[in-house]
Amino acid sequence: MANKFLALACLRNEGSGNLSPRPHYPSMPRYPKGVSGEGSSSMVMMEGSEAKALFSVIGMTCSACAASVEKSIKRLPGIREALVDVLNNRAQVLFYPSFVNEESIREAIEDGGFEATLIRDESNERSIQVCRIRIKGMTCTTCSSTVESALQAIHGVVKAQVALATEEAQVHYNPNVVSYYQILEAVEDTGFEATLISSGEDVSMIELHVDGVRTDRSMRLIENSLEALPGVQHVEMSPEFNKVSLSYKPDLTGPRNFINVIQETGSRRFKAKIFPQEGRQRNSYRREEIKQYYRSFLWSLVFTVPVFLTSMVLMYIPGIKQGLDTKVVNMLTVGEVSRWVLATPVQFIIGRRFYSGAYKALRNGSANMDVLIALGTNAAYLYSVYSVLRAATSKEFKGTDFFETSAMLISFILLGKYLEVLAKGKTSNAIAKLMNLTPDTAILLTLDDEGNIISEQEIDSRLIQKNDVIKIIPGAKVASDGFVIWGQSHVNESMITGEARPVAKRKGDTVIGGTLNENGVLHIKATRVGSESALSQIVRLVESAQMAKAPVQKFADRISKYFVPLVILISFSTWLAWFLAGRFHAYPKSWIPSSMDSFELALQFGISVMVIACPCALGLATPTAVMVGTGVGASQGVLIKGGQALENAHKVNCIVFDKTGTLTIGKPVVVNTKLLTNMVLQEFYELVAAAEVNSEHPLAKAIVEYAKKFRDDEENPAWPEAGDFVSITGHGVKAIVRNKEVIVGNKSLLADHNIAVPVDAEDMLAEAEGMAQTGILVSINGEVAGVLAVSDPLKPGAQEVISILKSMKIRSIMVTGDNWGTANSIGREVGIETVIAEAKPEQKAERVKELQASGYTVAMVGDGINDSPALVAADVGMAIGAGTDIAIEAADIVLMKSNLEDVITAIDLSRRTFSRISLNYMWALGYNLLGIPIAAGALFPSTRFRLPPWVAGAAMAASSVSVVCCSLLLKYYRRPKKLDNLEIRGIKIE
């Protein structure tokens, strides 16, 4: 009793003011699909997905308050533990996100009478995931803006991007606050159909189709068997589709194991196979959409052509004219009845998609293209119905119907949508081609403990698991990322990296999935499969780029908010102006066509204005060009991360280059050798390599690598044995090789051993240092035998690239952490006048900001590791990346071939793409600005020219098709001819 009194007292004293006499507890969230609320299987899933949340709780004054908070939290389902700290006003909750989220917990605490705030830390930020959703039914920018606004309004969604061109959404969300089920529901609530492409929750995910399952018990049996496998994180069963979705850790298990378990569970009664790949699903969805529009257009033609003939052609054929003019009831004719009957299915059955789209838009408080079409066609159809009914009830009224207007409008718009979808499908060809690079099948090798082949088996390439050994025959595509364990060949990697020359592969070299093996047989060990592969990363990067909006697109988004309401206003004003002008005889009666009166003429002008205005063209102007541009870039080894990068890159007028690994190869090589004694070069390098092979220093490795060229077996050279090996840090090495004392190092090392350095050697060292090379002395038995010059040489074509950039009015600057002597020497050699040396990573970023403050639009070109601060600070960060190392977060553009010439390609492509975007906007805006006045009758008083509504509808459909086709011309982009004629000089590194 005392405890209860104490609890009431402290609640009364805390002064929250938010307490209600009947506390409300949030309803229990639904269990996820395929998870029951009880049983061991659900507990396995729960244990694998535990999350932690920390709340600041204001208003607690004693232990009774803490107990009250704890009780409020534990009432929720999916709570594992709740720890409440009164002194620090904190509550730490361990929970299962499948059953409850952070927002529900916060609400429960507040319903208990306390103020709660989720404390966000780095772990919460790291938990942000990205899901991709396919959205069906969007027709213009207004639709995509509506969906985007609805997604961004969801608590727990950090960022949402909706792309009209790809009909997809990319949502960054916190799974501890909101689930992707709720995100899908939010899209559905806006009136569009949503399908999850990927949830972003799992590293690897796969869907299997299971045949032979008859009962729920069998499905549960399969589910339990799969969940028992090590590495399986989550299993979701969809009995209605006989589908099993699994997320798993590829290091522990893989798809072959899942198929075997399913088949063994049913004593070979069940058969399992992998669902089609995402790319193929996307293509099948696109094909189905094209078929739907094609079918709708053909059916509309079946009804529209007779309507057109009876109203505009057959009326001029004497025999048929009398038949059509035959009276049915009063003034109602056979022709009017037949047109009414034929136009009605087109208006309400074939055209129902426009009603549906208009209803969804209006329900969400916006107006889109469907609203314009529905209003325009309904105005024509309903007036025609009024005219027909009045003729049927009057013996004098002879009305004119516009059934051909509504039917032909819908037919031409469907034709336009069909052509638009057809063209839009081609804008994403780059991704489709990338996805199709992976071969359908692969040859799996089974090896014994000694590495001998036991068997070969041809399998579906999607069944490859980590550490599998795959055989790649000549002419076949590499089935997976991995490394060569046996064999030699040349592999054409142009389809991934854009590099045209085949790359030599031998034991230990890495290979990329999707590349083409040219001449030899290779055995490779799979290291990265599924979503981890380089190809999958490239596809994801290109998809993200195509989702990202360019800043210039905000212009279209702003216009789209007011476009449709403004068009409706102009349309109504047009009708009213012409109607009043006709009523008050402001124009001669001779202007009115014989087949209609002044009201009908005004109505036609109003409808024409309504249907000629096209918000679609504006909405498609930027995304289609960005899609094609990023796709073309990917095919040339230039990965551009979205519209922002494209827009900034076209303005670049200053480029900051890092030195090591960017202007230079980043790998020391022997560039010169001078012998000072009578020796065969092969014998000289045998002794030097034997001494240096035991050193880990980069210069030593460069010397050994160069020495291999003088051996018959370059892959596994056998060097003479070196005795008494000593490595002197910062100076060099010493060893006894073939009873000769060999010393390799700098002047200090030789001076310590009292070895005199001749004048010729001194001159050679000075010459090497003047050329930014490192001079290395070689002493044999106490005498200087030779001098080696080791350098990090310029990349082939570096000088030419800087020269071309100058001709493009782009300033080049070099920033490096190297010493001033080397930096100035490289700067002179490459042709860069402004050199900044001995700069730390953060100082590079400061230099970039200084240039931006001076008015430059700066691009930074670096290796993406030490240069990441500068890459982020620059307007455009360009990362020099090798074929498999493409996930460089800091960069806006990744140059996969590591060729400097691609800097020019990236800038030129961005300029071409942005000019295409500008052209698209000029076309879309110019079309509307020109078309609307003509449709409104601006030319009618002087020329008697007017646009019938069906012609206006055809023009509207043609405008969006024209914009897409204009973007598609980017597919024929070719890099500047200057680069094709580039004379590449430099050292070829094998």
TrEMBL record:
<keyword id="KW-0067">ATP-binding</keyword>
<dbReference type="GO" id="GO:0016887">
    <property type="term" value="F:ATP hydrolysis activity"/>
</dbReference>
<dbReference type="Pfam" id="PF00403">
    <property type="entry name" value="HMA"/>
</dbReference>
<dbReference type="InterPro" id="IPR023214">
    <property type="entry name" value="HAD_sf"/>
</dbReference>
<keyword id="KW-0479">Metal-binding</keyword>
<feature type="transmembrane region" description="Helical">
    <location>
        <begin position="601"/>
        <end position="621"/>
    </location>
</feature>
<feature type="domain" description="HMA">
    <location>
        <begin position="204"/>
        <end position="270"/>
    </location>
</feature>
<feature type="transmembrane region" description="Helical">
    <location>
        <begin position="296"/>
        <end position="317"/>
    </location>
</feature>
<dbReference type="GO" id="GO:0005507">
    <property type="term" value="F:copper ion binding"/>
</dbReference>
<dbReference type="InterPro" id="IPR027256">
    <property type="entry name" value="P-typ_ATPase_IB"/>
</dbReference>
<keyword id="KW-0813">Transport</keyword>
<keyword id="KW-1278">Translocase</keyword>
<keyword id="KW-0186">Copper</keyword>
<dbReference type="InterPro" id="IPR006121">
    <property type="entry name" value="HMA_dom"/>
</dbReference>
<dbReference type="GO" id="GO:0140581">
    <property type="term" value="F:P-type monovalent copper transporter activity"/>
</dbReference>
<keyword id="KW-1133">Transmembrane helix</keyword>
<feature type="transmembrane region" description="Helical">
    <location>
        <begin position="921"/>
        <end position="941"/>
    </location>
</feature>
<dbReference type="InterPro" id="IPR023299">
    <property type="entry name" value="ATPase_P-typ_cyto_dom_N"/>
</dbReference>
<dbReference type="InterPro" id="IPR059000">
    <property type="entry name" value="ATPase_P-type_domA"/>
</dbReference>
<dbReference type="GO" id="GO:0005524">
    <property type="term" value="F:ATP binding"/>
</dbReference>
<dbReference type="InterPro" id="IPR001757">
    <property type="entry name" value="P_typ_ATPase"/>
</dbReference>
<feature type="transmembrane region" description="Helical">
    <location>
        <begin position="947"/>
        <end position="970"/>
    </location>
</feature>
<dbReference type="InterPro" id="IPR008250">
    <property type="entry name" value="ATPase_P-typ_transduc_dom_A_sf"/>
</dbReference>
<dbReference type="InterPro" id="IPR017969">
    <property type="entry name" value="Heavy-metal-associated_CS"/>
</dbReference>
<dbReference type="InterPro" id="IPR023298">
    <property type="entry name" value="ATPase_P-typ_TM_dom_sf"/>
</dbReference>
<feature type="transmembrane region" description="Helical">
    <location>
        <begin position="337"/>
        <end position="355"/>
    </location>
</feature>
<protein>
    <recommendedName>
        <fullName>P-type Cu(+) transporter</fullName>
        <ecNumber>7.2.2.8</ecNumber>
    </recommendedName>
</protein>
<feature type="transmembrane region" description="Helical">
    <location>
        <begin position="406"/>
        <end position="423"/>
    </location>
</feature>
<dbReference type="InterPro" id="IPR018303">
    <property type="entry name" value="ATPase_P-typ_P_site"/>
</dbReference>
<dbReference type="Pfam" id="PF00122">
    <property type="entry name" value="E1-E2_ATPase"/>
</dbReference>
<keyword id="KW-0547">Nucleotide-binding</keyword>
<feature type="domain" description="HMA">
    <location>
        <begin position="51"/>
        <end position="117"/>
    </location>
</feature>
<dbReference type="InterPro" id="IPR036412">
    <property type="entry name" value="HAD-like_sf"/>
</dbReference>
<dbReference type="Pfam" id="PF00702">
    <property type="entry name" value="Hydrolase"/>
</dbReference>
<keyword id="KW-0187">Copper transport</keyword>
<feature type="transmembrane region" description="Helical">
    <location>
        <begin position="367"/>
        <end position="386"/>
    </location>
</feature>
<keyword id="KW-0406">Ion transport</keyword>
<feature type="domain" description="HMA">
    <location>
        <begin position="129"/>
        <end position="195"/>
    </location>
</feature>
<feature type="transmembrane region" description="Helical">
    <location>
        <begin position="562"/>
        <end position="581"/>
    </location>
</feature>
<dbReference type="InterPro" id="IPR006122">
    <property type="entry name" value="HMA_Cu_ion-bd"/>
</dbReference>
<comment type="similarity">
    <text>Belongs to the cation transport ATPase (P-type) (TC 3.A.3) family. Type IB subfamily.</text>
</comment>
<dbReference type="InterPro" id="IPR036163">
    <property type="entry name" value="HMA_dom_sf"/>
</dbReference>
